Amino acid sequence: MNIQAMMKQAQKLQKDMLNAKKEIDETIFENNKSFVTVKATGNKKIKSIKIDIENINKEEIEMVEDLILVTINELMDKIDKETETKMGKYTQGMPGLF
Questions:
Q1: Which fold has domain 3-87?
Q2: Would the pTM of this model clear 0.70, i.e. be above it?
Q3: Where are the domains of the chain?
Q4: What's the pLDDT tens digit per position in 58-87?
Q5: Which of 38, 33, 29 is nearest to 67 (CA)?
Q6: Which residues make Cβ contacts (< 8 Å) with residue 76, sequence separation at least 6?
């Protein structure tokens, strides 16, 4: 394989990686725990937090706060997993690039 062909292949790979990353960044991920729902983009920007207040009382506020933390952390894990799934083919053997 000549240098020009290798450069074209590298440019295509770079373009494919950027497109895959853009797709992930623009995807809205959602996670639910009991009466807490959190939505975030693939680049981990929280878009919304919804709390179904009809099903909680004031004594449960600490539990709601804990649920929010758990829900957000699980959502971040979902985003990481999706990113690894989509980007892993480009980063084989190079963890932590995305």
A1: Ybab; Chain: A; (3.30.1310)
A2: no
A3: 3-87
A4: 788 888 888 889 999 999 999 999 888 888
A5: 33
A6: 40, 44
